[in-house]
Amino acid sequence: MFNEIVKRVKRNQLISMMLFIVIAIICLAITRFNIINVVNGPENVNLVKNDIKDYNGKYIQVSIYHPLGIYEEDYVENTSTKEQNTTHYAYLIYDADETYSNYSLYGAMIPKSMYYEFNKLADESSNFLMSEDFLPTYKPFAFKGLVKKMDSIQLGYYNSVLSELGQPSVDEAYYIDYNIMPGDMDYSFVVAFTVIAGIFVLIAIIMLILSFTNRGLVSIQKYVAKHPETSLERLDYEFQSSQCFAKNVWVSKGHIFKCGPFSVKIIDLSDIVWAYYYKKTGKHPQSYIRMYNTKKRMLSVDASEKISYEILEYMEQMTPHIVLGYSKELQQTFDKNFNEFLNIKYNNSSMTEDEQFFSNI
């Protein structure tokens, strides 16, 4: 019973499952598989006890108390207006132990959106360092990001600020790029694509479960339950004599069976009064057979233009009560005088005994 269509549904589900798994892997590959860093989080590091260069290329988190000042400002320039818009600021960070006898210096790159928050922290740090307080009373900034080595230009800016503070210049220095993960991936970007990958994996699992639950047959049984005038046996008998189009669409005298990845879509043709091919090109192209029933409700079957016209030609032979094709005149009659539209074919069609049988299934 319905063996072919049930097998098609199951096959579609397994194909969809594999497709969703592939998409999930692609999403994770786009993020350079930073899902591990998203799940585990950054490594908490004390850069007074540990040398920052040992963490070059790693995703870490530090507690920043003392931003001393900006040593670099990054910007983009509008090629037309030559206007410059700041994108990032780089701060010189002073990190010390509780006794302030041991310290380290490094850079921290922040987006422009964090400027006021970081500047406020710099003011609080300045007030504390000039006070006689033993420990800061304000909260530090939990700064997470990717450790990078400064290039020669960045190092030049960095050494200029060191010189202003009376510190000796250095031959190399490192900075933490805020919210950047290995592979130069933005944290928000990685999280978004990881979530998308998770959704596709979840859908793949659902498809796998559905493939073992005979979802195709279940959807047919639900259709029969909603249509007490027919039975599973009669519907199966009709399906056996139907014509297959494009591997996933079957058309009989009484119904259209459309095999999808989740279930079987069944359209009762005895209730259809108008059908025509609809095509839309452009950014969101569409191609399907548009059908209307006696309640003026629209139903559709997705198919290519070639297959759609083949189905309509077959329906012309099997369903004489349906108006086939589109015209502005038909649309106007359908919209403004529906009873007159029904009189074109639906009310006046002369059905054979077989057609009457199938229309009542």
State the main characteristics.
single chain; 361 residues; alpha+beta; 7-stranded mixed sheet; 4-stranded antiparallel sheet; 11 helices; 17 strands; 40% helix; 28% strand; elongated; disordered C terminus
User: Could you tell me the mean pLDDT?
Assistant: 90
First CA to last CA: what distance? 16 Å
Question: What percentage of the residues does DSSP assign to strands (E)?
Answer: 25-35%
Low-confidence stretches: 351-361
Radius of gyration: 34 Å
Number of strands: 17
> Given the C-alpha coordinates, what overall shape results?
elongated
Helical amount among residues, as a percent range?
A: 40-55%
Main sheet specs: 7 strands, mixed
**How would you write the strand order of the largest sheet?**
1-2-6-7-5-4-3
Number of helices: 11
List the helices and strands in order: HHEEEEEHEHEEEHHHEEEEEEEHEHHH
Structural class: alpha+beta
Helices and strands in order, then pairings?
Elements: H1 3-30, H2 35-40, E1 43-44, E2 59-64, E3 66-77, E4 84-96, E5 103-111, H3 115-129, E6 141-149, H4 152-164, E7 174-178, E8 180-181, E9 185-186, H5 187-211, H6 215-226, H7 232-240, E10 243-245, E11 249-251, E12 255-259, E13 264-268, E14 272-280, E15 286-293, E16 298-302, H8 305-318, E17 323-324, H9 328-336, H10 338-344, H11 353-359
Parallel strand pairs: 1-2, 5-7, 14-17
Antiparallel strand pairs: 2-6, 3-4, 4-5, 6-7, 8-9, 10-11, 11-12, 12-13, 14-15, 15-16
